Amino acid sequence: MASGTAGAERMRHPGRTGRAAAVAHGLRAYGLIVRMWIRSTLAYRTSFVMMAVGDLAATGLDFVAILLMFSQIDALGGFSLPEVAFLYGTSSLSLGLADLLLGSIERIGRRVRDGTLDTLLLRPVPVFAQVAADRFALRRLGRVSQAVLVLGWSLTELEVDWTAGRVLLVPLMALCGTAIFGAVFTAGAAFQFWAQDAAEVQNSFTYGGNALLQYPPTVFAKDLVRGVTFVIPLAFVNWLPALRLLGHPDPLGLPGWVDFLGPAVAALMCAGAGLAWRYGLRAYRSTGS
Amino acid sequence: MWYRAVAAGSFRRYATYRTATVAGVFTNTVFGFIVAYTYIALWTERPHLGGYGRPEALTFVWTAQALLAASALLYGGGIDELQERIRSGDIAVDLCRPADLQLWWLAADLGRAAFQLIGRGVVPLAVGALCFPLALPGDALTWLTFLFSVALGVVVGFALRYLVALASFWLLDGSGLALISGLACMFFSGMVLPLRAFPGALAEVAQLLPWAAILQVPVDVLIGTRTGGSLLRGLAFQAAWGVALLALGRLVQAAATRKVVVQGG
Questions:
Q1: What CA–CA distance (Å, rounded) separates B225 from B1?
Q2: Contact of A7 with A25, CB cutoff 8 Å
Q3: Which residues contact A156 (CB under 8 A, 6 or more apart)?
Q4: For residue B186, what is the nearest residue in chain A, using CA coordinates?
Q5: I want to staple B117 with a disulfide (CB 3.0 to 4.6 A). Which of A167, B4, B70, B129 is the partner?
Q6: For the stretch B100-111, what's the b/e string if a residue is b when 16 or more beta carbons lie within 10 angstroms of its beta carbon?
């Protein structure tokens, strides 16, 4: 009990006792809520397995489309099937992990609309940790495992000279990609404080972004590629590092060092999304009834 | 007429959510752009894949996005609502109404589709036509035939979803079946890739299944792949699946309602 009060105290004065303690407190709360939802999910084991397999199959249809295309052609936009599979795997894995970890946040619009966000504001736990863990859906592992399967297959098929740097680049891509998609999820959720019914707009940038990144950048119009490089920098999830790894020229002709900006872009996007979230939360006015 | 009021009510119900409609239109348009470019790449490699040229393939993309909500190609169509009513037992109230259950839900679905065709369909197709060279017809008759074909497709889609929902009378949790049927619809309607562009025998088989009536046939009507005898065969194909599936729905409905025991309260 005493430690709980101390934790709440730290939350109220993060400046005095350190921001790190506040973050640790938020993470611990996140972990506790996630564990609770996992236990509740596993109470209906058959249902869980079915839904996870369903998720795997549903996301797998995207890849079936690519396979169907490649049954008629040898290369798409100059990329072979293993190369497209590599793009598919890295993008899908990033989105899948971000969706697993904090995808529930997209339900915030409903809470804003019916005012149940009030309950979350009263608890001595950061609201972000609560909504990110809310109804944590373990079945989203379906997308993650499907992405891992495709990525694994592509890695065995690719003709790449695997130096240590290149091997390290793959998990780094997944990490930065997860952070970038996580930032998009968060920014989209912050947007819902103002436009509660517009949750679907977010899908354009998360699932739409994923659909885009699964195909080679050479396929798309230059302006579209510019848009996802400079405006909403999704290109750093996998396009730019993958072009480097696979030895394809950059269609925009950017300088080579840009390919390695992934971590910086991810950090910047997370910071921006954090600010947007804070601003959105402050603008929250309850339903008034 | 009962059912006209139900359809009109359903239309107004979906028309209430304006922001959600705008958000949906935005998302459909974004996806339209993404898929359009991948199809351009595919049809550059194989210029006459499935008998389509590039404008026909692009028209397929944008029509699919325009019909996505109306024809419930990915999800939706109020199926979970009926499923939930069966699960919770509220269906007993519906069965007491002096209206036929199947026709009631069909009317509601047609009202929903009519709104979503206008609210979610017109803008994506117009944006597509502005940004890409589409193979859209110039004469009003083809457009009218297309709308008729879309309506037949909506009926077939409803009849399939209705059967899935009725399964909840026997299954404790119908969400697995709904998921499988949704996946089948997405794949065999041509949403993933036009059925004509499927490899070999798969293309032939897929075009005989009921899901072909939902998207593939209406698009073929619009882009003029089907004219004359082929057009009539296409519409007859849709109507036949519609009638067969609705009839099957009635049989299952009869069996289900015999099974229902309403708990007194």
A1: 38
A2: yes
A3: none
A4: A61
A5: B70
A6: ebbebbbbbbbb
Could you tell me where the DSSP H helices lie in A123-238? 127-133, 141-157, 164-191, 199-205, 207-213, 222-226
**Centroid of chain to Cα B169:** 24
Pair of tokens at residue B42? 């595919």
Q: Hey, which residues does A79 pair with through a beta bridge?
A: A76
pLDDT tens figures, A93-122: 999 999 999 999 988 988 888 888 999 999
| Whole-prediction pTM | 0.89
Any domain includes A51: yes
User: What's the N-to-C CA distance of chain B in angstroms?
Assistant: 32
Q: Is residue A131 part of a domain?
A: yes
CB-closest option in B27, B34, B173 to A212 = B34
* The residue to which tokens 């359903």 are assigned: B10
Closest by CA position to B27, among listed A143, A271, A97, A106 = A106
Mutate to test the interface with A, among B14, B30, B35 (most CBs of A within 10 A): B30
- Spans of all domains in chain B: 2-259
A 10 A CB-CB count for A17 gives 16
| B134-152 per-position pLDDT tens digit | 999 999 999 999 999 999 9
ipTM over 0.90: no
Chain B contact present for A231, CB below 8 A = no
Number of domains chain A is built from: 1
